[in-house]
Amino acid sequence: xxxxxxxxxxxxxxxxxxxxxxxxxxxxxxxxxxxxxxxxxxxxxxxxxxxxxxxxxxxxxxxxxxxxxxxxxxxxxxxxxxxxxxxxxxxxxxxxxxxxxxxxxxxxxxxxxxxxxxxxxxxxxxxxxxxxxxxxxxxxxxxxxxxxxxxxxxxxxxxxxxxxxxxxxxxxxxxxxxxxxxxxxxxxxxxxxxxxxxxxxxxxxxxxxxxxxxxxxxxxxxxxxxxxxxxxxxxxxxxxxxxxxxxxxxxxxxxxxxxxxxxxxxxxxxxxxxx
Length: 275
Known about the structure:
Distance between the termini: 52 Å
Order of helices and strands: HHHHHEEHHHHHHH
Strand order of the largest sheet: 1-2
Number of strands: 2
Largest sheet: 2 strands, antiparallel
Mean pLDDT: 74
């Protein structure tokens, strides 16, 4: 197995179950039977959304395994995924797609994977158009982007269940599953982050603050900036009314995919102590 990207064995297949565990392993190894591969492609093309999304994830995961990536590189891929998602969002807006039109998950996931040469899996666009938002002190809404779903990990456990629920927009279930991931799990830091974001998206703000604070601390302990967790933690602090804490967090963000939005949000919040 490639160094820096651990696969936890013993999990069940995903999608609708069209591929068995053995066939999933064969796909990841690059030796899935050609006939079964064509059948899986036809099955996805026939309109199975779960298998289309899962197929894109499988391809991304297989190529990551072949390339061998570190945790830091994986986070770079996730940053690119967010950027690609925003490009799709802007393209949809330019095309004046009617707000409220639902896009099949598999269509947008496949488009993003193709655009990023098979390396990326994305959390798909919010079909409501505006996306989630927090309420600013002046009563206006600040809309923010949902981060990309975490990497595919076939552990057959709570992290996999949390990922599936998060990708489906079922944030209460995602938060509950990510909360159950033990601190011995190799992706515990990711679980803390996604539990916090899931709580935020489910309007459960105090637990969002608790989980995102932990995620930021774990990222910093790993030698990372923690800026991703800091941004979503600031959003959660705004929802709890702790605007000064949000300002301090936003001020600390020095780069990364959320830097521009953090600066804009900080400007909208105004002077420290004003609210």
